[in-house]
Structures are given as structure tokens and as C-alpha cells.
Amino acid sequence: MTAETEGQQGRERDIQGRERGTEGVSSSGSEKGREGEKGTLVSVVHVSAHLANVVNFSASYSEDFPALNLARYKGEDPKLIILTTIPGVTGVFLVLILFLMFTSSSYCVRLSNYEIFWYTHNLFIVFYIILMVHMVGGALKYQTNIKAHPPGCLAANHSSTSQRGDGLERAEGEERRCGEEARFRPHYPQTWLWVSGPLCLYCAERFYRYLRSSDPVTIVTVVRHPCDVVELRMVKKNFKARPGQYVVLNCPGVSSFENHPFTLTTCPTDNKETFGIHLRVVGDWTERFTQMLLPQPRMDLEILPMVQQRRYPKLYIDGPFGSPSEEVFNYDVSVCVAGGIGVTPFACVLHALLDGWTGFRLQRLYFVWVCRELQSFYWFAELLCALHHKLWQENRPDYFNLKLYVSQKDNLQSMSEEKYRPLTSRLLVGRPRWKLLFDEIGKTNKHKRVGVFCCGPKGISKTLHKLCNSARSSGTTFEFNKESFS
């Protein structure tokens, strides 16, 4: 989608719009930025050309062919032409909608008031409707009687200044005379031919998604975690998903028109139908949603079983949808790098390994998790410890290589609980030294194809991207896959 580091997942991706994609050599975020700039430039040139044409219609009014003019008389005010013709009025609305969509998509607007971004971008439906009637006014016309009135012919009341009295030139003059007055007709609007097809496909897809998400889900449990993170576990009939995928949530109690994507942290299996998400409360949507889930929030851990008498809000989900994290299992060796709440796409991967999923290529997994606060690791501490113990019991300790980094050194405490001892020994203070880490992975996995998956801040993504594209003496190939939040 995709801005977080997934780290600001509060509107989980609603604060900053989600951009998903698999990167090879170039940065998709910068490419999208350049494409947006190009589109804006083309729009400015297009509008400027139309404004120049309106001035030209007024200044170059043709007395010989009045039907061809958009202006009603010579020297008509161009502003009057724009505001009293269908092409002019619809053009003004099209420019206004584009301006609203362009300005509301800026980072500062999305961060301060996401709803403005959301609602203005839904104006694209109005934009296409107006676009289809933009040509109805007949600004562009073509001649319908070219044979009777060929270009350059002389009207019946027009005498040729080149006639010199001889018969040959009189005959030529007669041949150049017009048989009738020129007639013009507006071009038939054809925009609908190009727009209606994609719009029909879009409407069909939206209708299918509406049917798929029409049944509300059943909320099973709500768990409050440290650092303003809430876990939501749900059940929905016939819902199936794979690790790395995400769903779109709609809570009518908060907003009927807002839909926000959340990465699945637990997928349904043959043995259990529940699936779950983790959301961080940092925006107004997640704040209102959390208040409806936990009317009286407590700071300590709170588990709310389904049998308890609490009315949860009605909730709809659409999905699942694919993401780059699905490819983790398609490499012999994968490196998963998470920043803060960006761990959510990989939590589902770890759950799959813990649940004993089979039939994939993955032979070794490197997992690097960077957080500002130590408390953040408690979100999935039990999952990490359970997977560690499972692999040790199966005599596969090298399958899962875990590194935890806490970047904030102030008031640093340790995970003193005995059950978290496997994490304590792998906990490092500071930031990862990425080059040394990649060199170590390259030497351990010589001449192999390693998939690198990142979900976190742009700084980490850019660093890993450069390291993946740099040549290595070990012959190891690193392929970069990113979930970006911008």
C-alpha cells in the first residue's frame, strides 16, 4: 500500500496509504513519485493548451465559417466562453477534482487528516462521469460536405482576383467555385468507448468484493499488548488465507465508507478456524475502533473470551489479498527484516512454521527485528520462544536464526522472565550492522539465491536495497522484496 515502518499501523496503513510491490533494481516508491510528477506536468500542459485555444477562438473568430467557431462573436471574453459552454464548465470541474486529489495525496495531508485523502480520492467516479460528457458541447467539429465544398474553393459571391480575362483562367475559376456553403458537425463523443469498459470491470470487481465481504465476522478475543497494540482474533465461515496476505477491515460503527488493510498475523488452518491481526493505535480510526472493542481499556494484559458478556462492534472483512511476503517460502534461504509493528507480515510466517506447514522450499530463515522499545518484543515473544523450542526438539536449531535489536538505550531493562531466556540471549542493543550481517549470510550460503523481505522504515529499506544490488565474492544472490508504507 503501502508508511509506517509498518510502525504506524494505526489506521493501520490508514495514516499513510499502503503501497505493495516486489522490488528488483529500482525503488518503487521513487518511481511512483516520478510518475505522479510526470502526470501532473502532462495535466498542466493539457490545460494550458486548452486555455490558449479558448483565447484563439475569441481572437481568430471566422466570419466566413461562423458555425466552426466556439466563440459567438469576435473578441468574446474567454472566461465567458469557458463558463457558458459544456466543454468549458466540465473542464473546470475536471481540473478542480484533479487538484483536490493531487493536493490531498501529499504526505502532510494524509498524516494530519487521512479522511480528506480518502474521500477526495473517491471523487474519481465523478471525474469519469464528467469526462464522458466533456465532449458533448461540440467544441471540435468536422466538415460534412467536402466534395461540394472542397478546401480552398471560392464562394458563389466571391470573384477571383487572379482572373485576367482569358478563357482558360475563367474555366479554372469556375472549377474552384463552391457548390454549396460549408457545413460542420460536432464530433461524436467517443470517451465512453474507452472508459466504459474499465469502469464496468471495476464495478464488477467491486460487486464481487461486496458479496464476498457481506457476511460479518465473529470476534473471538481481543488482547491488549504493550505499546498501544491490540490483537484481534476472529472467525469467518469458509475463510482461507496464506501467510503474508492481508485483509481489508470495515467497521460501520466507526465509519461505513472507510476500509483499512491489516496484515494477517495468524492464518486459519485445518485444526483451527481463527485468524488474527495486530493493530497499533496511532490514528483516529484505530482509536475509535479500539474504544468500541475495549470500552474500559486497562494498561495490563487483557484477554476477553467470547463467552464474556460483551457486545463487540459489527465488523466486515474483504480479502485476503496477496503481498510480497508470500514469497518467503519460495526461497531456499530467506531473510526477514522487520521494523516495529512491521513484524506483522512475518508473524504469520512464524505461525505457519510452528503449526507444521509442509510443502515449501524454505530450508533456513533469518529473522531480524528492530524495535525502539524493549516492550515491543512482547507482542510475539511467546511465538518466538515456542518456535525456538519446537526446532530444538526436532534437532533443527540452525533452521531459524533470530536476532533482536532494541535501538533505544534509555531506561533499558531486560526480559527477565525465565520463559523468555531464548530471546534474552539473542537481544542486542543498538542498530544492526547490515553489511556485516549480509556478509555473514553470504559466506554461510555460498552460491545460493537468498530472498530478502523487508517491512519497516524507508531508511532500512534503502540500505538493504543497496546491499542486495551489490556484487559479492561469495556468489550469493540477494533478491529484495519490500512492503512499503509511504
Question: Which labels suit this protein?
Answer:
486 residues; alpha/beta; seven-stranded mixed β-sheet; 16 strands; 19% strand; disordered N terminus
Q: Uncertain regions: pLDDT < 50 for 5+ in a row?
A: 1-31, 159-171, 304-308
State the helix count: 14
Outline, from the CA principal axes? elongated
Structural class: alpha/beta
Task: Calculate the terminal CA-CA distance, rounded to whole Å.
Answer: 8 Å
> How many strands appear in the DSSP assignment?
16
Q: Spatial order of the strands in the main sheet?
A: 1-16-15-11-12-13-14
Order of helices and strands: EHHHHHHEHEHEEEEEHEEEHEHEHEHEHE
| Major sheet size, sense and barrel closure | 7 strands, mixed
Mean model confidence by pLDDT:
78
**Helical residue percent?**
25-40%
Strand content: 15-25%
What Rg do the Cα atoms give?
32 Å
Structural overview:
- The chain has 486 residues and is α/β, with parallel strands linked by helices.
- The chain is 36% helix and 19% strand.
- It has 14 helices and 16 strands.
- A 7-stranded mixed β-sheet has the order 1-16-15-11-12-13-14, with helices on both faces. It has a 7-stranded antiparallel β-sheet with strand order 9-4-5-8-7-6-10. Strands 2-3 form a two-stranded antiparallel ribbon.
- Strand 13, helix 12 and strand 14 form a beta-alpha-beta unit.
- Helix 10 packs parallel to helix 11.
- It is elongated.
- The protein starts with 17 loop residues before the first strand and ends with a strand.
What layout of secondary structure does this protein have?
Blueprint: E1 18-21, H1 28-59, H2 78-83, H3 86-104, H4 107-112, H5 114-121, H6 124-133, E2 141-143, H7 167-175, E3 184-186, H8 191-212, E4 218-225, E5 229-235, E6 246-250, E7 260-266, E8 275-280, H9 284-293, E9 302-303, E10 316-321, E11 333-339, H10 344-354, E12 364-371, H11 381-393, E13 400-406, H12 421-424, E14 427-429, H13 434-444, E15 449-455, H14 458-469, E16 477-485
Parallel strand pairs: 11-12, 11-15, 12-13, 13-14, 15-16
Antiparallel strand pairs: 1-16, 2-3, 4-5, 4-9, 5-8, 6-7, 6-10, 7-8
Helix pairs in contact: 3-5, 3-6, 10-11
